[in-house]
Write a structure and sequence with these properties.
single chain, two-stranded antiparallel ribbon, extended
């Protein structure tokens, strides 16, 4: 919740630095279980997303992707130690809302170029993820 930037947003404050408290229960097909919890052995590294807002979109720099970070084994060379912070002082409960799922795939109804900007109209308001294919030089804005 560090909403700073020059685009549409409803709130421009900050709730402090990015933090994570995690306890995840893994249930394997053989019936065994494992609990994974965040702790001081974890490491961190900046990723490709430098801005994210439900109202203002997302800035993603593909040049900053860390290849293989989500695979085992991973060495984490150049990653730093995490800082431990006190929790929020409240009880932590499971996330109860249903998972986000693809419910419909939309196709554009109109595409228009205007002032060096391409406007893609899907004919309705929606929340979703566009799937696009682009070409250009590294670092160019899309």
């Amino acid at each position: 919740y560090n909403n700073v930037g020059n685009r549409y947003q409803k709130w421009t404050g900050s709730s402090g630095p990015r933090t994570l408290t995690l306890q995840m229960t893994l249930r394997y097909e053989d019936g065994s279980m494992e609990i994974v919890s965040s702790n001081s052995s974890w490491q961190a590294h900046d990723g490709p997303i430098s801005f994210n807002s439900i109202y203002g979109g997302e800035d993603h720099d593909a040049r900053l992707e860390v290849i293989g970070w989500d695979c085992s084994p991973f060495q984490g060379t150049g990653w730093g130690s995490v800082s431990l912070h006190r929790g929020p002082g409240c009880s932590v409960r499971p996330q109860l809302q249903p998972p986000v799922k693809i419910r419909e795939t939309l196709q554009p109804t109109h595409i228009k170029d205007y002032n060096n900007t391409r406007i893609v109209d899907f004919g309705t308001e929606f929340s979703g993820w566009p799937v696009i294919v682009v070409q250009g030089r590294a670092g160019a804005s899309v």
